[in-house]
Specification:
14 strands; five-stranded mixed β-sheet; globular; three-stranded antiparallel β-sheet; 209 residues; mainly beta
Length: 209
């Protein structure tokens, strides 16, 4: 894969891949820029990186060291355009009664987890929750749904993670919520950027009586 060196508006050199029509070099990295709304936005695989220079300066001050965990709600089926899994048209069961459960394979699709940098991690935790406001994992109107521990996470190897079940707490009030996912809840792992560890759905998750 050929690469090129370009300068951003801040005068800092950036290394970018040159696309040859063979597919995106890493759709998962491009999709997960934390400066884009609700976990990133991409329309087709030829867009190398959203908010390229801003995002790379913020996330990778020194690309030779450090580590950073990111989440994506996109996937790339059969090398075609990237597909968002948590948008308004997302498939799966997005309704459950308070105190009820949805098997992970029948509920909202999983999220992609990516570790960048030079480090490897023995394990990583991902949690899912509902939020009744506009902010995930702020401790206000949050209702936990699931948690999963993933072992042996290697650098630059994105993988899909889904909970075994989505368990709606019995005390959850009925109504519409946003689904959230968070990797490394509580910031137990030291990262170069702690602000890009969560995602929020565009589609509502409805809790019924």
């Amino acid at each position: 894969m050929p690469w090129r060196v370009v300068a951003d508006e801040g005068g800092k050199a950036l290394i970018q891949p040159v696309l040859l029509g063979l597919g995106h070099w890493s759709v998962d990295i491009a999709n997960m820029n934390n400066a884009a709304p609700t976990g990133g936005d991409i329309s087709h695989k030829a867009r190398v990186s959203e908010n390229d220079s801003e995002g790379q300066r913020a996330l990778y001050g020194d690309s030779s060291s450090g580590k950073n965990l990111m989440l994506s709600k996109f996937h790339l089926p059969s090398g075609v355009s990237a597909v968002e899994d948590w948008d308004a048209d997302a498939g799966g069961d997005w309704n459950a009664c308070a105190g009820c459960s949805i098997p992970g394979g029948k509920g909202p699709k999983g999220v992609q987890v990516l570790l960048t940098g030079t480090a490897t991690l023995p394990s990583v935790t991902v949690e899912w929750s509902l939020t009744g406001n506009s902010v995930c994992a702020d401790g206000v109107d949050d209702f936990p749904l699931a948690a999963k521990v993933i072992g042996s996470v290697g650098s630059s190897m994105p993988f899909l993670v889904s909970p075994d079940t989505y368990d709606v707490p019995p005390a959850t009030p009925t109504g519409a919520y946003k689904l959230c996912a968070e990797v490394d809840p509580g910031d137990a792992i030291s990262e170069t950027n702690e602000t890009d560890n969560d995602l929020k759905s565009e589609r509502d998750f409805t809790v019924t009586p």
